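Throughout our pipeline, every protein is held as a single compact record rather than as scattered files. Such a record has a labelled line for the sequence and another for the backbone structure tokens. This encoding replaces a full spatial description with a residue-level series of whole-number codes. For reference, a complete record is included directly beneath this paragraph.
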Amino acid sequence: MSDVWYSTDIVLGRPVAVKVVAPALLTEPGFAQRFRTEARTLAGLRHPGIVHVYDYGQAAVAEGEISYLVMELVHGQPLSERLAAAERLDADEVMSIVAQAADALRAAHVAGVVHRDVKPGNLLLRPDGSVVLVDFGVATTAATSGLTEPNQVLGTARYMAPEQVSQQGVSPASDIYSLGVVAYECLTGSPPFTGDSALTVAMRHVHDRPPPLPAEVPAATRAVVERAMAKDPADRYPTAAALAAAARAATAEPTQALVPSDADEPTAPVRPAGPQAAAAAPEPAHSTRRRNAILLSGVAASILAVVLLVASPLGDASPRHVGPTANSTSARAGTPGATQAGTPTTSATSPGRSSSSPDRTGAASPRPQQSAPPATGSPKKSSGVVPGITIPATTILPPLSSVSPPLATVP
């Protein structure tokens, strides 16, 4: 219906877009008045997602009388061109476009304006990702509802709402339906309905159900599009603001609790015993891991002591001295350590302090160990009982290296 020119405002020295209506169209009944109404309608809308209008005028040219509209020059790409190049868009990007376009429609609807021609060609994408709604040429308001001729349907057949096709009256819900069709096309690469003629396509919006969206479309995005495209206007979103909120909610990342890695948590957590444990206040996660690791190392030391007692000869009445050998285990309060033959030494250190383990720091002085007191009296067969732990004498214990996680992973 018009040509849009890249122009320069020589008075203010700024680039602008000038929309010029061909002289032949101005002779059609009501067209010239609709064009003037578009200028007044856009001039009254103030929203970053709606193109701004600077001026309106008429001029005589060689071909006859023309009307023109001076608008903000939007540096961007029509969504239709983006779809032609990319075929389909990511669900999050589509929901972002829908949310921004719905925000712009809300501003128009609050002002009493129904766009009636929401389609990819009328949505401009700026380089920063923002969306601008343009071309209110067939928009309707309460003051211009009588400008449409009887049996005349204005809009684009591919994106028309069913009530718009059947001339049951347009409303803000009609724009919501058209924006839902735009989202469908962005997600699938093609509009929901096609046909040999505009009339065929328009009637399919009234009677047919659209093909289902691809399986890879997230459920939340699918729900937004399906509700926006409901045949009955009452089943759609009640306002464009509600559609914008739903589209943004569909792209929100779910909140995930921080789960410690397997290396930070023992496979069988050790809980403190006693009545104080139930009434104790929750400890920070790092404190709980440190306490559990210390208790686990103490239990491991006790188990190894039982193994040494069980392995001792029952007939040997001489005292046995348990000293610092290659298979000894030491446990110091707050700093558990464990050494086993054939297993690298691991140790836990406090933050900011270096470990005395040779495997961690190189040449370091060995940590002194306390020898167990000599056993007295006649030897007795070990019952395998350690305070807090009951182990049969025949139990075969795994090496300490199999305890998961390694004690050196304590922060």
User: Anything to note?
Assistant: The CA atoms of residues 54 and 71 lie 5 Å apart.
